[in-house]
Amino acid sequence: MGIFKSYDIRGVWGREWDATTAYRIGRSLPSLLEASDILVGRDARESSPAVFQALARGILEAGCDVTDLGLATTPSVYFATAFYRYGGSVMITASHNPPEYNGLKISRAQAIPVDYGSGLEELERLAAAEAGPARAASARKGKRMGGTAKGGRATTGTNLLFPWQVFEYADAPALATGDDCGLRIAGFGTQSAIRSPQSSLSKATPAR
Fold it and tell me: Does the model's pTM come out above 0.90?
């Protein structure tokens, strides 16, 4: 498949890959990642909800839990994967590519990236063969946002959960913040951060 690149999966949605391809990839992921729970976030592209639905259906049918993080940035997905000890994650995005593109960034537990040479080539083979029976890992102890140790359950996670963590770890009475909303998703993160209980900005009046 031409959509499998060196570090991720991407291509023109509806032409180079579609819901069937996304489903096959999802069906193969639990086996590849040896995961019993997979976190999925997505960007604001028009095709991202359709990608999520097909991908999640495949993951669930393989007997693996899915937590839907909703609209998210790639760093927030990486953070949540490690912080909440998920068995793996997928970020639905095509990064800087034009809007007709979409893609997948896949990580193992602890947010370790999966690239071509460390798993994407095997995922390509499994998806092409419509293979990938679930091989659920044993349930792990630790913090999780949702789901259970049983496979095949869909849950909703906290959207863009990580900005408020800045205030937990920052050793400062106040922080000056800046926001680059070029892809719009970052704006949601800023709102989440300044409205959090940890932020002294939560009661501030926005500048006009």
Answer: no
